[in-house]
Amino acid sequence: MHKHLVFLAGACLASAITHAKLPKAEANRIVDAIYRVEGGARAKKPFGILSVRVSSVAEARKVAYNTVQNNHDRWLKAGRPGQFLHFLADRYCPPSADPKGNRNWKKNIVALVK
User: Fold this and answer.
1) 92, 105 in Cβ contact below 8 A?
2) Which of 18, 33, 65, 84 could form an S-S bond across to 112 if both were Cys, CB 3.0 to 4.6 Å?
3) pTM for this structure?
């Protein structure tokens, strides 16, 4: 019976680690960097949001924040392959759609977040 409790405790811990949210302050730093990478106040599409229609910069920021958190969850579930910001970049600016843009996005987001 003791072995089952140890296994269950380990499984619960692994689940908690896998589903840990990115701290709000860190997520906000990344979202601030995305704003700049995507053109800041000059951008026609705030935060580079193309997947849904947004009616304000605040709404675009909320979509970007959710995108960061959701991709952080995906990154954890995938076993933390590589740097999180590179994982995010491959979804935000896919290399299949724009290889040069993806390389630039990665370089810029990493520099701005640090």
Assistant:
1) yes
2) 33
3) 0.80
